[in-house]
């Protein structure tokens, strides 16, 4: 294990984001390792998954103790998610070898990051809609076929890119179970992610992609970062932080897809402007009729 200070710091920052929002682990860690530290894309994916095996249980235990895990949904996710995550590793290796493989993996990860951005935008919209409608329910029935399909799609994406266990799968679960309570969505996603990510990490270990020393270095910062983020989460605006993640992931995804710097900057500025508008609008209280205006309204009605 190499006690590399910048990598430990990067792990702490990503862990903090995960603890704060429940998302962003692989979507942030993998591009950071590739673009900042020059790690090969396949090694970055395998190492991030190996680190995630030890990060995920921290959040999952909290939700297990709180009783916010839908075990019936987990039971329908795992039969498809676990083998899909394991198989996604070998599907990735089918893209080629050497430099050709690394270049293609960058494009695959970039595409997954843009899917994660789309998923986060959908989640922000769904969260706002659910809050307005007040339709959350902890006991909605599981949808077996839809849940199995979510496991297939989510598992493949996670196995190939390490992206999606907290940003794509939870959105698909929201779409399949739109009335399920938010904390049950997060708890269910975290618990099912443990065996799914473990299967993907095992696959990368078998093919020789995972660097356990790098994963251990990341965990030195990531574990306290997750704990600190969870402690701070109740004091910081969740939507504001998620919009910050949207901006970061947009820039990372476009950079991995080899977009020009102009396109990356303009896209990030557009997302930042959209996030600022949405956050400010979300804080604006509904307009109410003042007491001074009530008599006038009554006179007008007469």
Q: Pairing-aware structural class of the strands and helices?
A: mainly alpha
SSE pattern, N- to C-terminal: HHHHHHHHHHHH
Q: Report the total helices.
A: 12
Largest sheet: none
**How many beta-strand segments?**
0
Helix content: over 70%
Name the overall outline.
globular
**β-sheet strand percentage:** under 5%
Radius of gyration: 21 Å
**Which stretches are low in confidence, meaning pLDDT under 50 for 5 or more residues running?**
288-302
Mean pLDDT: 82
N-end to C-end Cα span: 80 Å
Structure characterization notes:
The chain is mainly α and 302 residues long. It contains twelve helices and no strands. The longest helix has 36 residues, at 98-133. The radius of gyration is 21 Å and the shape is globular. The relative contact order is 0.20. Residues 288-302 have low confidence and may be disordered.
């Amino acid at each position: 294990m190499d006690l590399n200070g910048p990598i430990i710091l990067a792990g702490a920052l990503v862990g903090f984001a995960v603890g704060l929002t429940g998302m962003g682990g692989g979507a942030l860690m993998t591009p950071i390792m590739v673009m900042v530290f020059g790690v090969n894309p396949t090694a970055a994916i395998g190492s991030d998954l190996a680190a995630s095996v030890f990060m995920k249980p921290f959040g999952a235990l909290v939700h297990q103790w709180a009783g916010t895990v839908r075990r019936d949904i987990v039971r329908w996710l795992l039969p498809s998610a676990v083998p899909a995550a394991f198989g996604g590793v070998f599907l990735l290796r089918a893209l080629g070898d050497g430099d050709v493989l690394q270049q293609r993996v960058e494009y695959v990860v970039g595409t997954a990051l843009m899917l994660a951005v789309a998923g986060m935008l959908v989640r922000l919209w769904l969260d706002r809609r659910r809050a307005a409608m007040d339709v959350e329910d902890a006991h909605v029935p599981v949808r077996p076929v839809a849940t199995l399909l979510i496991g297939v799609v989510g598992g493949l994406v996670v196995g190939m890119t390490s992206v999606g266990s907290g940003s794509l799968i939870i959105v698909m679960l929201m779409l399949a179970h739109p009335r399920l309570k938010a904390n049950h969505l997060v708890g269910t996603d975290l618990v099912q992610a443990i065996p799914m990510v473990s299967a993907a990490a095992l696959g990368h270990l078998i093919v020789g992609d995972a660097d356990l020393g790098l994963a251990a270095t990341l965990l030195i910062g990531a574990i306290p970062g997750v704990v600190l983020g969870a402690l701070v989460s109740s004091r910081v605006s969740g939507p504001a932080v998620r919009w910050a993640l949207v901006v970061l992931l947009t820039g990372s995804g476009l950079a991995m897809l080899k977009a020009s710097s102009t396109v990356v900057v303009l896209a990030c500025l557009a997302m930042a402007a959209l996030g600022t508008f949405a956050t400010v609008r979300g804080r604006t209280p509904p307009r109410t009729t003042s007491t001074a205006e009530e008599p006038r309204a009554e006179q007008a009605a007469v």
